[in-house]
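This section describes the prediction task in plain terms. A model, or a person checking by hand, is given the sequence of a single protein chain and must write out its three-dimensional structure as a string of tokens. No templates, partner chains or ligands are provided. The sample shown here is typical of the held-out split.
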Amino acid sequence: MEGVEIIEGSAQVDHIHLLVAIPPKYSVSSFMGSLKGKSALMILDWHSNLKYKYGNRHFWSRGYYVSTVGLNEATIAKYVREQEKHDQMVDKLVTKEYEDPVRGS
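The expected answer:
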């Protein structure tokens, strides 16, 4: 889409963070539809083996989260930049208790 600017971006294993500037003539939903649709086609074109895994299913999840940025754009850009470090720290703090399916404990 013409006039869209990617300011910051960060890709994790299971999600992507983007800080983008979208001109007012585009709605957020139309931008997201275009972004998801075109990127899925490009990825499936580059990695043809994924077509067998995602053939008739959706490549991206249906939803997305959007927040508007006002005066605090620098803080949001920093958050996007440092999100991977934050996720790694949280993963180290999380401990899971596994239940034995046979014994139930």
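For orientation: Strands lie at 5-11, 16-21.
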